[in-house]
Design brief:
Blueprint (H helix, E strand, L loop, with lengths): L6 E6 L2 E6 L10 H16 L5 E6 L3 E3 L4 H9 L8 H13 L5 E5 L2 E3 L1 H7 L3 E5 L3 E3 L13 H9 L1 H10 L3 E2 H7 L4 E3 L4 H13 L3 H14 L4 H16 L2 H11 L10
Parallel strand pairs: 2-3, 3-5, 4-6, 5-7, 6-8, 7-10
Antiparallel strand pairs: 1-2, 8-9
Length: 263
């Protein structure tokens, strides 16, 4: 019997659905899973048929973070510092964070450690009512190693980030919503539909303009206001030359809704 794939993917109406599929391991990320997800994201980024990416999971956990069995095996072999999990995870987090398409994390259960960090790399986060968030690092006597120390202060502020990281508290969906860790909470059974509705709206939008907007936000923190205004000018010129930019102007003059093609 063929073993089930650890990652399920399908593309429908411009939306790439990527589903972590190791429910018995609570969708923990071993090195093969990290590499497969990275490869799928690379494919999505270059595929014009993909205009939005949704990341979700099977089972009761979104993602339990690093695969502790793989971790323990590396330690037993004396290879904990060299077996490559952190470097492989960092490459994945950077790929997801810098993707040119909008990304949505549909968080259907507990997100721990690198699993939480995976959701933080997405542009938008929707949480099921049963979702839980836990940094997981200090309980293992570790500091963050997959982007939490960068994302959390920007999303929820420095003090809240320190509380979540220092005390390793388990935050429920409503607390995550109140803190700004997620943008929406819905009933468990409504999560797929809520993610699909949001993804559909984005898939019908100006994909090239989304990519420029993402880049401006991502790089803006390193610039002065004057530098950012120059970057906005350059991005705006590119958007104006795009097919969707021309269509938006035609639609405005013709007093109709634009029909964007994502180019």
């Amino acid at each position: 019997m063929t073993a089930p794939s650890s990652l399920l993917t399908h593309i429908e109406a411009g939306v790439a659905w990527i589903t972590l599929n190791r429910p018995e391991q609570r969708n923990a990320l071993d090195i093969p899973a990290l590499k497969r997800l990275h490869a799928v994201l690379e494919s999505c980024n270059s595929d014009p048929a993909v205009r939005v990416v949704v990341l979700t999971a099977t089972g009761r956990s979104f993602c339990a973070g690093a695969d502790l069995a793989e971790w323990a095996d590396a330690e037993a072999r004396g290879a904990l510092e060299t077996y490559g999990w952190t470097e492989t995870a960092h490459a994945l987090m950077q790929r997801l964070h810098s993707l040119e398409k909008p990304t949505i994390a549909a968080i259907n259960g507990t997100a721990v450690g690198a699993g939480m960090d995976l959701s933080l790399c997405c542009d938008l986060r929707l949480a099921a009512q049963s979702a839980r968030f836990k940094a997981g690092y200090t309980s293992m006597a570790y500091s963050p190693d997959a982007g939490a120390s960068w994302h959390l202060p920007r999303l929820i502020g420095s003090e809240q980030a320190k509380r979540l990281l220092f005390l390793d508290e388990l935050w429920g969906a409503e607390r995550a919503l109140a803190a700004g860790l997620v943008s929406e909470v819905c009933a468990d059974e409504q999560l797929p539909a809520a993610a699909a509705e949001l993804a559909s709206r984005l898939a019908q939008g100006p994909t090239f303009a989304y990519a420029q907007t993402k880049r401006l936000i991502r790089e803006g923190a390193e610039r002065s206001l004057a530098e950012q205004l120059q970057a906005e000018l350059a991005a705006g010129l590119l958007c104006g030359r795009s097919e969707d930019g021309a269509e938006a102007l035609r639609a405005a003059t013709e007093k109709r809704a634009p029909r964007f093609v994502g180019q």
